[in-house]
Amino acid sequence: MRQPSLHTWTDQPTRLIEQSVAKDDPDPKALACYGLLLRPSGSDPEDLMLRFVDGRPISAITTPFLADCCDRLAARGKRALLVVWAGTLWVSSWHISNAVKAWLREHNRQVKREGRGVRIIACQLPVKAPWLNPIEPKWVHGKRAVVEPARLLTAAELEERVCQYFGATGPMTLFMIGAHRYLPLWQQSSLPPRKLTMDLARRVGLKKYMNQAQRTAATWLAHFAYGTAIGAAYAPLARKIPGPSVVKGTAFGLAVWLASYMIGIPALQMPEAAKDQPVHRNALMTGAHVVWGAVAGIVMDLFKRSSMDG
After folding, report:
1. In a domain, 288, yes or no
2. I want to staple 201 with a disulfide (CB 3.0 to 4.6 A). Which of 23, 207, 242, 275 is the partner?
3. For the chain, how many structural domains are there in total?
């Protein structure tokens, strides 16, 4: 997985240090993450299928991933999969490799011959137009959220952070946005992630230089980065504490809410402290953290099982 392009502001000169990998490092030299973003269709919500593999993405790994995706979609009653991906050599050569093309032809022939399965229709994007692919923004923001500037992440840590980012914080965000609409009108001010991010931006002197789009982007990036970091802290605890994954995750989510909104935020004199908020807004954020914790527990359990199977 390539490092994301990042930038920052500082009043003092910054010394860049290149992180090096130890010669006896047991982790693979490269780690690839395959992803298939399923857009909303009818009553089916948006979904993201992920698979991690050691090494670089090549045709021999791509085709089993596509086959597995087809099996999962067939179980959902789907008959066809329209795959939108880059069709240029400079982006991903395995998208247009002869091996992948041959596998697609044979796969579709088999589906037609047997009358069951999921056909794959590959749609290649124009040259240098990655923004036309809906999954690209998720990769960009996901990489920025899981990166660790101070040290190198192990393969297991990186996989856990990616799973936490895409698995838990997303449902929590959807819950917050949906529940926010049902608050009394006088309580429908900006959600806590927005207020907290803007308060932090004001303190460091950046808010006055940010337009509306930049403020929104900073809010979502900070929100998902925080959720990913806390999820990474939950992973080692989940391995040591016995009990059902959903129960452990829910308890951890409630603990995060208490530590953040009852202790941390008041201590830092930031907005949205629980003691200053009405019951409905506190209930919204408590419920959001319950959702986050429960999904985090489920994601960790699935990740553990997939690691044992693989």
Report:
1. yes
2. 207
3. 2
